[in-house]
Amino acid sequence: MKQFDSILVANRGEIALRVLRSAQQQGYRTIAVYSEADARSPHVQMADEAVMIGPAPVRESYLDMDKVLEAARLTGAQAIHPGYGFLSENAAFARACSKAGIVFIGPSPEAIEVMGNKAASKRRMLDAGVPCIPGYQDEDQSDEALMSAARDIGVPIMVKAAAGGGGRGMRLVESLDDLPVALASARSEAENAFGSAELILEKAVLRPRHVEIQVFGDEQGNVIHLGERDCSVQRRHQKVVEEAPCPVMTEALREAMGAAAVNAAKSIHYVGAGTVEFLLDADNNFYFLEMNTRLQVEHPVTEMITGQDLVAMQLRVAHGYPLPLVQEEVSLTGHAMEVRLYAEDPANDFLPATGTASVWSPAGGEGIRIDHGLLEGQDISPFYDPMVAKIIAWGEDRDIARRRLLRALQATTLLGVPSNREFLIDVLGKTAFAEGSATTAFIAEHYTDQPPVQNVPSALHLALAASLLYRAALSESRSVAVSVLPGIEGYSGARALRNHYQFGEEDKAVDVYLDEVSPGDYQIQIADQLLMVSWVDEDKSSVRVSCDGVQLTAQYSLPARGTVQVQLRGMVATMTNALAFTRGDEAAGGSGTIVAPMHGNLMSLLVSVGDRVEAGQDVAVMEAMKMEHRLCSPVAGEVVSVYASEGEQIASAAVVLEIAAEE
């Protein structure tokens, strides 16, 4: 048996936290590694010890084997768990761990090598009697050999990079005339992505399901499977939704696919957690696709229906102990679904997005599990995968799981950076998905237009945006108030202040008018619609309001001047008040621009055009809610413009005057 009581996790984000959590529960001392960009990340804080291993770029940190091994030496780590991605399927790293006397928590380097090459793995599977898609996986990579094989296979054909995954180096060819171009482009992409231009050809199975079997092996030669996961809903060959069990699975089919997956693992003497992936056609014929020699991103759905901790099983097997259960003891209970929450912009072709998670509030609830490594206020880095969380739901049956997951997505809030949250909500609501009939063609068939989800703010979104901006202005005004008469705060006098906001592009601008009828009660007019909004409760990022007698909760963020984000009934709308940038204010907030901090009356102007002022000098006095607010100059210089008059009612953020700063 291999003895170790300390584990270094060679990863970051949610999977690092996931592994650390199980390791600590099992009593291990845990060590994290991190890049300069991740110095304040949750996995660093959770680990017992942590070592900085380099700059943000992955090749200088998380992919640098020497730095990871040096961190293990420095902390006395006796084992390394690679998580997924990065070094998890790197045979050279597994060998380096062994050479350094460190237990690699994963399969043997030989198993990683065989299954890391699509051509070699397919040849091994054919020898093991595992059903494979008809195709070509020989070593002769000449165009002549590939063209000849393609003619024998017949179109449609998939051209695939032998060494790769994730859809890179992959082309669908529907006419043999297009094959030469597809070969050239796939070779180039494969060489750039994986350092190998080797290709394979496979008969294209159109509209299949993507079904994978979770397998586990130990050093005694035992291999079991823990059921299947359906990962058919994909975009650009990247999984979007995963669920277990597969909606169309039968006991006979599960037994057949499970046996094939176990045979695949046994043929390479597999030890640890692995996943054998298959394509399943409409007639229940299944074909080997590839094997992932690591823990999968979607492993939580298997944990939720089997009750097994797969990371704890990995640690047990890594010691050399036999598996904790036999095949007959594996049982599947209920249904689980997982979605991947990405920081990406669906309206911009799903490109990864960066920014600050100004509000991050993951949902809870019955049957809900959220794996994430995100802190509120944390920057989303451009250096790493844009997945920020996995949201998982379990239910007694598939529809309960789906509804719980839908509700959890609607209740989860991520503001400050674009995300695919609403796209995921839309996917779960599609009839084809709800009925369990989605195949790998689902996204292409249901999302032909861009963007896939239109975020058009409702009247209530607009009403809340105006109310939040108004309240923010009042809060700011109180913070700079120099005097207030006791007992009359909130009193606005005989003159009603109607506050005007304008949201949207110029050709589609919506005018919103707000009147505060009493403290916390607002009458809001949008076109011919009149809404009554009353504040019930509020914290730093959510508010409970009553609108025309209906109470509901919204989440919000005020990321910039005049801009508010509101999440209501699961939908986020970002709205900017165009009137906050009026009166020629093209550089509002600049060094010499004085803007009104709130809505109110300009009681007096203390300077005129041509006057010289000192930094900190009072230049105007405003009154709102019977509080006086003195506006002072942030710079020394000359008053060059005055945009308001004494006695005038002016809006929050309106420009009052401008000062040319002295050089």
TrEMBL record:
InterPro entries for the chain: ATP-grasp, BC-like_N, Biotin_BS, Biotin_carboxylase_complex, Biotin_carboxylation_dom, Biotin_COase_C, Biotin_lipoyl, CPAse_ATP-bd
Single GO molecular function: biotin carboxylase activity
Residues covered by the ATP-grasp domain: 122-319
Keywords noted in UniProt: ATP-binding, Biotin, Ligase, Nucleotide-binding
Nucleotide-binding keyword on record: yes
Domain Biotin carboxylation: 3-448
Chaperone in keyword set: no
UniProt pathway: Lipid metabolism; malonyl-CoA biosynthesis; malonyl-CoA from acetyl-CoA: step 1/1
Record-annotated Lipoyl-binding domain positions: 585-660
Cited PANTHER family: CARBOXYLASE:PYRUVATE/ACETYL-COA/PROPIONYL-COA CARBOXYLASE, METHYLCROTONOYL-COA CARBOXYLASE SUBUNIT ALPHA, MITOCHONDRIAL-RELATED
The protein's assembly and partners: Acetyl-CoA carboxylase is a heterohexamer of biotin carboxyl carrier protein, biotin carboxylase and the two subunits of carboxyl transferase in a 2:2 complex.
The protein's role, per its UniProt record: This protein is a component of the acetyl coenzyme A carboxylase complex; first, biotin carboxylase catalyzes the carboxylation of the carrier protein and then the transcarboxylase transfers the carboxyl group to form malonyl-CoA.
Protein name as it appears in the record: Biotin carboxylase
Organism, as annotated: Pseudohalioglobus lutimaris
